[in-house]
Amino acid sequence: MREMSFDCVVIGGGAAGMAAALELEARDLSVAIAEREERLGGILTQCIHNGFGLIEFNEELTGPEFAERFEERIGGRRISVFCGCTVLDMVADEGEQVLSCVSAKEGALRLRSRAVILAMGCRERNRGNVRIPGSRPAGVFTAGLAQRLVNVEGYVPGREVVIIGSGDIGLIMARRMSWIGCKVHAVVEILPYPSGLTRNIVQCLHDFDIPLYLSHLTTGIYGRDRVEGIEVAPIENAALMMGKAFKIPCDTVLLSVGLVPENELSREAGVSINPMTNGAWTDSTLMTSLPGIFACGNVLHVHDLVDYVVEEARRAGRCAAAWLEGARPCREARVKAGSNVRYVVPARVDTGRDNKLYLRTMIVKNDAILEVRIDGKVLLSSRKNHVQPSEMLTLTLGKAQLAAAAELPDAAVEISIQ
Amino acid sequence: MRRELTCITCPMGCRLVVESAPENSTPAAGDGLSIGGNRCPRGAAYAREELLAPKRTVTATCRAATGSGSRAQGGSARRIPCRTASPFPKERVEELLEAIYALEKPLPVRRGQVMIRDALGLGIDVVATRTLDLE
Questions:
Q1: Chain A residue numbers touching B126 (CB-CB < 8 A)
Q2: N or C: which end of chain A has fewer CB within 10 A?
Q3: What is the pTM of this model?
Q4: What domains can you pick out in chain A, each with its CATH number?
């Protein structure tokens, strides 16, 4: 079996993997990317709509354009790219990680490295994950699968469409299906507010007069061979009103009910997973519970902007490079998600430098206050014009602000939103 | 006339109310629109454009020509993704989409390559958004 050694192997060649690999290469470390698909770019290649790159390139690009710009940067560097290459497992061996891979071109292949960066992205929740009752007809797709069928493969999955869940991919697909001549009859959302970005509600639903049913549960999918319709019922004061249930006829159901980081490989290897994010617990350097294994992008937590993914991946790349050169985190404090905060990534801060934190709130509010406390003492309070769960918040805590935490043993930095 | 819009300039999502002044009155801004509900000037600008000349960036795909073995060999894409080079007048989007779907382009295609020049005579090109080679 062919075996190769690198300073670092990046698993996944999407936006996160490419951005991380470029950082390592820039520091003269040998780096490889193992990518399952035949080409780099990850999910971006099927996201043919625009809205990518406002931070990174200061212009609005489509997914394929964003991916290709990174692919071109990779092309000019000494980065070994293995496309069509699936990593089967990751095992520690004498201070190194050994990745067993298969690829149609290379056959079985073993990649050894001192550091690994996990950048496998996420996948969609499906019907089984959200337990929608009813029969099992053909015509039920996850929104991202439909997106691939339409945008890459050139198939139209159906004509009369209902979308369950108001995540961004579902909203984007509402517009796409309308633009390819299908009729989108409704978007059904269980929560009282949309799960997607406001601009997607406006540009993908309002433009096409697609009704959005908030606080509505899908109580069944019906049809014998092919979907014939779904039944939905409103939720009022936390009670399901079956008396007010109604049917929406359709031949196709698209599910946009959330994304889950794809961490099977990490779990098998023994990486500890945070149940709030379904991604790895990491320290202030984005290193997981296993030394030398780092994580970034959607496999760490689900982002809403690729620009944030790239920013986080660069940090993982820089930190992996520093770790390879012997740097180890010290003076760390724990980060705790306080009231109305679903999670904060990473779970630790280095009190000796600037730390960028990513967090998600659980509430929808205008004029909210974000507070940072150490041992109950407020050390930062900032006003946010508007917060909602679908918009990720960022926060930078510097050395000066964290001075209080540096003096305490096992200090906890608690972040809350009021 | 009264219209309600949601501003998408930032995540605040201000609910804008736009009213056109009666024709015999003297409108303040020259276009006869009075805009409320916006928390910043960008909201007013958004409402004006959205009501007077709405535009959208259109993204779609066109067919890769099925000539000698170019179509979908070795798992390559069957569709070529493309976009308008700048936002396109909203009321002509349907027509534009028809023109894009009617296209059939031979591979290879380079990112940025013009697929339709001066679409519908409106001075806006449709360009490819991905480089696709013959397998």
A1: none
A2: N
A3: 0.92
A4: 2-123+260-329 (3.50.50.60), 126-257 (3.50.50.60), 334-417 (2.60.40)
